[in-house]
Amino acid sequence: MSGGAVPxxxxxxxxxxxxxxxxxxxxxxxxxxxxxxxxxxxxxxxxVQQRVAAIEAAFDERGMKPGEFIEEFKxxxxxxxxxxxxxxxxxxxxxxxxFRQRLLANGRDAVGELGLSMPAHHRHLVVLENTPTLxxxxxxxxxxxxxxxxxxxxxxxxxxxxxxxxxxxxxRTVLKEMGLDLPPEIEIRVWDTTADTRYMVLPVQPQGTLxxxxxxxxxxxxxxxxxxxxxL
Length: 232
Ligand SMILES: [Fe+2]
What we know:
Blueprint: H1 21-33, H2 48-61, H3 66-80, H4 83-95, H5 97-105, H6 107-112, E1 124-129, E2 134-139, H7 148-151, H8 156-159, H9 161-169, H10 171-177, E3 187-192, E4 197-202, H11 214-218, H12 223-227
Parallel strand pairs: 1-4, 2-3
Fe (ii) ion binds next to loops.
């Protein structure tokens, strides 16, 4: 990794969220697809539609309502968990030094001051402060974890194996390919998300914006700058 911090050791269930509904889903898949031991015939793989129907049937049998959960999740993801939340946090940090200190000390508590919440299993929000000579970048090497309620849904490239694998080892090259060509004197630190620790990047405030209102500054902050693959 070029100039980056060594990510924490990987654990098999590093990204598994305790009690999260995906574990219910996983169990259901196993139960629905389990074949009798005495049958060793090779079964054709069910289509995606068949597997979805089987999972829905398993939920129905247990009186669970995945449709409602999906609709609720979709609404949260599309309307509430948006990058503008993180942009508000950044603008506040740029204009309020005391808030900035609280944010860096305890991100989860600080974003709560702005009425923003995080899922229970996102126990820590670590805010990574960029400087003119330091660029922080976040990833999830195992899957796609982000501080979803603060910086929004992860973009497709964030979930791509190519990004997850290469940004750790070839961070400077990957950033350049994504349009951020950093000079060698700027250090790059890559942070690997875990189940209970989520990250967001605090970008450097753009020159010429001192004295701007929070609302004006909020409009400058992009999702990519919150992930660390862009500077403002
Ligand atoms: Fe993950």
